[in-house]
UniProtKB/TrEMBL annotation:
<dbReference type="InterPro" id="IPR009880">
    <property type="entry name" value="Glyoxal_oxidase_N"/>
</dbReference>
<dbReference type="InterPro" id="IPR014756">
    <property type="entry name" value="Ig_E-set"/>
</dbReference>
<feature type="domain" description="Galactose oxidase-like Early set">
    <location>
        <begin position="288"/>
        <end position="392"/>
    </location>
</feature>
<dbReference type="Pfam" id="PF09118">
    <property type="entry name" value="GO-like_E_set"/>
</dbReference>
<dbReference type="InterPro" id="IPR011043">
    <property type="entry name" value="Gal_Oxase/kelch_b-propeller"/>
</dbReference>
<dbReference type="InterPro" id="IPR013783">
    <property type="entry name" value="Ig-like_fold"/>
</dbReference>
<keyword id="KW-0732">Signal</keyword>
<dbReference type="Pfam" id="PF07250">
    <property type="entry name" value="Glyoxal_oxid_N"/>
</dbReference>
<feature type="domain" description="Glyoxal oxidase N-terminal">
    <location>
        <begin position="2"/>
        <end position="279"/>
    </location>
</feature>
<dbReference type="InterPro" id="IPR037293">
    <property type="entry name" value="Gal_Oxidase_central_sf"/>
</dbReference>
<dbReference type="InterPro" id="IPR015202">
    <property type="entry name" value="GO-like_E_set"/>
</dbReference>
<protein>
    <submittedName>
        <fullName>OLC1v1018146C1</fullName>
    </submittedName>
</protein>
Amino acid sequence: GSCDWKETNNALSAPRWYASNHVLPDNRQIIIGGRGQFNYEFYPKNDQTNKLFDLPFLLQTNDPEENNLYPLVIQNVDGNLFIFANNRAILLNYNTGAVVKTYPALPDGNPRSYPSTGSGVLLPLKNLQGKIQAEVFVCGGAPKGCFMGALNTCGRITITDPNPQWVMETMPLARVMGDMQLLPNGNVLIINGAAKGAQGWELAKDPVLSPVLYKPDAPLGARFEVQTPASRPRMYHSTAILIRDDRVLVGGSSSHGGYVYVNTPYSSDLSLEAFSPAYLDSSFDLLRPQIVPKSQSQIAYGQKLMIRFMVKGFLNPKLVRVTMVSPSFITHSVSMNHRLLELPVAKYPLLPIFRNHQIAVNAPANKNIAPPGYYMLFVVHQDIPSVGIWVKLQ
């Protein structure tokens, strides 16, 4: 076929290593930071953007260990960018270079960026037709120093609040270089990583085999659930990504400066496996929705969508939701462009004689809420998701 990689020489204005990307509302990408690069740039470029734009925040968050690499970049619902590096964050107007807001530092002061790598996500966006509350969740990382115990703390902050403050929570397992993935029902999976050390060649030990589920809407103190442990260590250079059938694909682990398979405690692992959340258990089959194929493939901003689906068992109409999850690019525990939206319900399904149902929802209103591109769309019934379908938002 004609689908293949295309490599462009000299596409960037500066060489970058350990930088972060994000898709913008106008379909460009912004590329931020990297080793020794305290700036950002855009791709593709035009006459006005064919240059570097200084970002002093990256210089301010730099330290002798360079704990500001792979910054966490999230598009806020106002179109500005939330940028977290080391242990603090700003809201950046990338068009003007102005810092719109400076957020308080994490109370414990510990770094959460590479190489003291934690992980973070934008929690599910809801109430899309009202005043949207955007929350960022950051977990794990490492105190400064090699082979010290990883952090077991998390910070949660509402970045849209006029006076935002971090709320700290404690994970059941300490973890450095874990991966976070948003599940179709809005829960967060934390998987992979180690209990001691930092990210880098042979800088960590004691793999954390048990994933942890985080339920954002549960009461404080009852949000974490430890899951069944894996059999393979997934350390440095491992990844995890949600796939359309509701599983999380997990792969890789390469803790050495090359592929090493013998005479080492953590050999290179090029395998793939999939983590199946509890909602895939066969005991939930009667609740599981099945989207009727081609319900929708290309959708416009603000469009009213009629999603057809089937449920084998009894349907509770008020417990049906429709979510959209963006596919992300993942490396070094950073899930770039990752977000989940719960679409506003215009009309809940009725209870028909047969098992065919229909729900009316509204697509996101604008590109600040949801950048254009492909998303996986799911119907969720009583927290049990359907297999997703691909839709293109434009």
